[in-house]
Amino acid sequence: MRLIHPENLEDIALGATVLGTGGGGDPYVGKLMALQAIRRSGPVQLVDPSEVDDDAIIAHTAMMGAPTVMVEKLPNGREIEHALLSLQSYLGKKIDYTTSAEAGGINSTIPFTVAARLGLPMVDADGMGRAFPELQMVTPTLYGISATPMAIADEKGNSAVINAPTNRWTETMARTITIDMGSTALIALYPMTGRQLKEAMIGGTLTRAETIGRTLREAREGHRDPIEALLRVTGGFEVFCGKVQDVRRRTERGFARGEATIEGLDEDESSKLVLHFQNENLVAIRDGEIIVSVPDLITVLDAETGDPITTEGLRYGFRVVVIGIPSHPKWRSPMGLEIVGPRYFGYDIDYVPIEERFADRGREGGRR
Amino acid sequence: MRIGIDVGGTNTDAVVMDGSQVIGWTKTPTTPDVSSGIITALTDLLDRTAVAKQDISAVMIGTTHFTNAVVERRRLLEVAAVRLALPATETLPPMVDWPQDLAEVLGQHIYLVHGGHEFDGREIAPLDPDEIRRVAADIRAKGLRSAAISSVFSPVNTIMEEEAADILRAEIPDLYISLSSQVGRLGLLERENATIMNASLQDLARRVAASFRSALNHLDLHVPFYISQNDGTLMSADYAERYPVLTFASGPTNSMRGAAFLSGLKDAMVVDIGGTTSDVGMLIHGFPREASVSVEIGGVRTNFRMPDVLSFGLGGGSLVRSQADQVQIGPDSVGYELTEKSLVFGGSTLTTTDIVVAANKADIGERSRVADLDSVLVQRSIDEMQRMVDRAVDRMKTSAADLPVVLVGGGSILVTREIQGASRIVRPEQAPVANAIGAAIAQVGGEVDRVFSLDGQSRTEALDAAKQEASDKAIAAGASPETIQIVDVEDVPLSYLPGNAVRVRVKAVGDLSMA
Fold first, then answer.
1. Is the pLDDT of residue B176 over 90?
2. How many domains does chain B have?
3. Of the residues A78, A79, A167, B149, which has the fewest C-beta atoms closer than 10 A?
């Protein structure tokens, strides 16, 4: 167990943007909310999954909706308590811990708010090891753990408890309610036992986000190459470097989909990289060939500062380095690939782990 | 004819232009009262050019006064920060992420009341007039003179901010009121921050505008005058008086616009090399490219339309140091003391200016004083300066294609060769007053930033509606309709949502219509 103070949150939020793979929402608002809650109620206890009792009850807490709305209609702070307490009263059992659904983007910091406000300890884990666009895309789904009963609440005092036969149905119904609530809602879901948590969740991801954020910050402060430092700490690969030539965005079935075209510079001169995204980056296509795909992480960084750039912030003219980071092994199982692999997102290719594609690089976790 | 004035921290520059021709210019020191400096500059300008006052049809002024006031935390009013949002947003109240010293200067008078809209135009809660009246009573009791009103999704629907302002004004007739929908785009905290800073500048804005007016009256120049804003367009002096925050980035904007004008280029890189630093920015369609990340002013996060400018430590007074076979240029500089401290002027500090004189690339001071400089050091320094400029130009470029580079500023002599990636280098003659020229030629603009629903209309229809609205706004601001151009269109779908909502940003500009 350790205590999370305001200074830890800065690093967690920065690291979470790297793990957000272009999506997951801007963590600025989530970070400020958590900072406010911790300043008022004191630091949050973060425990390792191994410290959690097998019979303890844990629930994910998260924000659902459109990131563009989240920066305008901010929460009042009580929604998340309301969601968690609704779930608790429906269950008729005390919830002992909360944890993150996704370690990427704004949802990395949302659980700290409820943990601080209710004095609840938080488990250092998440269900993705990154960000994904839909709520069934978590590792507990692979272990048959239901997202429901799930509670959803808004700032006006509305709340609902959802029960559904599959986690995809939960996603569909929760999405509809979220829109009626004004396109942002706070949710508490995936109630599970400590035993289930240890088996089904990805442990240590908040600490991993913090380490990534700290590494990036310290490299910059020490005037060392931030991208080199980032690749070493994540075991990632430099995929491409170039300048953004074009960004196309469109809305399809409630998601921001699009492509960014990056024209190569330096070693990638005369090559072209196209990124496809659905909120998060899905595939990287170099000169017509997919070279990185989901579930591996594809993140775009500012070539100078190493700052991660979200798909919404990506603009014509930016000079960027695209990196790829191996996904958690849980996603690489046949079932994992079924729910978050390239075919789920409409790409008719077999998934090839990034370290196999880049085996000829000779080394892992460094610049070319 | 038009007069452009740039009131900077050090100098007040003035230029008179006839259409697109520069008739004459002058540079004088800025004075603490602002107006006597302007009077001196204008008197000198009119004397020199023999232009008759009755031939002047408008005066355009650019100033960094308001930015400096916030940065220095001086001459700011305490502000009532009123947010229409309950039951939403309480977790992050107004001024939540401000530097403590600035927050204290402004007093942290926070009022969270019911109101605001959803993204689709529904009300979060209705406005409660009695609640606003209670806020008014408290403002009166505290003796506050300025209020900032922000409402959730007010860029989509301004009505609640306007209704709340009417109620406050009915209760306290002389209260200064700033509305967030007039100041910024989507992003509540950033827009609200800018509105609160704007409210704190109300007294200063009145005083500065009054000193501009009194200077012009003193000279019998009874013509309309305008203030240049962040995006290189103009606003009326009356509007600037109410929204001084919109001038925050007008300095670099005017310099880049002036460079565009002097070079005749619409798409180019502008390199402004001063005494201590250089600014590099990209012109697109004759306007500076805007920064995409949030910009901090005086430590406060905002989402202004600001030019994307890269500053680095190279100027005519930058110090040159060598160690082994490495040369280091700047970032420190002898600044305005160049004419005392540099070698060519008899001083003992090796500066970049000394290097270019030694290399026989410029004729400043006494060349004999640098005759003994090591030629290898001179060569390495020239290479290093060139590398700094090349890198900055490359970083700011938006495509791999070569493009013209416009060099302005007194330090532009430091560039002695071709710049990598430049198709050609343009060095305009009137470069020292590029800022005042930028003010003189500024256009008027209109901007739309709103969420459109694509149910029942196509994307093209939504974009057309936005373009029309932006053009109408520009015309309302004084643009002549036949000169209107759409200079920026951006649409971002709202992700994680079905129903095809799209956020559209359109900017239209036109020449000021001259009666």
1. yes
2. 2
3. A78
**Which of B145, B166, B200 corresponds to the end of one domain?**
B200
**Between residues 109 and 128 of chain A, which touch chain B (CB distance below 8 Å)?**
113
pLDDT, tens digit (0-9, with 9 covering 90-100), for B434-462: 889 999 988 888 888 777 777 778 878 88
Residue of B nearest to A270 (CA): B400
> Is B179 part of any domain?
yes
Domain finish residue from B146, B175, B200: B200
Q: What does pLDDT average to over chain B?
A: 87
Give the C-alpha separation, B282 to B293, whole Å: 16
Give, in degrees to the nearest 5, the angle at Cα B279 between B276 and B283. 160
Q: How far apart are CA A328 and CA A203, in angstroms?
A: 10
Is the Cβ pair A183, B492 closer than 8 Å? no
Q: Which of residues 296-335 of B touch A (CB under 8 A)?
A: none
In a domain, B475, yes or no: yes
Check: complex ipTM more than 0.90 = no
* CB pairs < 8 Å spanning A and B: 147
Window 67-106 of A, Cβ < 8 Å to B: 67-69, 71-78
Whole-angstrom Cα distance, residue B226 to residue B243?
13
Residue B385 lies in a domain: no
Cβ-nearest to A73 among B88, B454, B495: B88
Query: How many other β-carbons are positioned within 10 Å of the β-carbon of residue B318?
Result: 31
A254 interface with B at CB cutoff 8 Å: yes
- Residues from chain B that touch A263, judged by Cβ atoms under 8 A, are 399-400
Q: Classify residue A110 as left (phi > 0), alpha (psi -120 to 50) or beta.
A: alpha
Measured between CB atoms, which of B91, B493, B502 is closest to A74? B91
Cα–Cα nearest to A15, from A319, A330, A325, A284: A325
Q: Is B186 on the interface with A (CB under 8 A)?
A: yes
Q: Does A312 touch chain B (CB under 8 A)?
A: yes
Shortest distance between the Cα of A359 and any Cα of chain B, in A, equals 30
Chain A residues lying within 8 Å of B289, measured CB to CB: 317
Mind listing the pLDDT tens digit for each residue in B100-137? 999 999 999 999 999 999 887 789 999 999 999 999 99
- B57 assigned to some structural domain: no
DSSP assignment of B239-278: HHHH-GGGGTTHHHHHHHHHHHHHHT-SSEEEEEE-SS-E
Is A365 an 8 Å CB contact of chain B? no
Mean pLDDT throughout B485-513?
72
Angle (nearest 5°) at CA A307 between A304 and A308:
130
- B457 lies in which domain range? 443-510
What are the beta bridge partners of residue B502? B452, B493
Kindly list the residues from chain B whose CB atom is less than 8 angstroms away from the CB atom of residue A254.
496-499
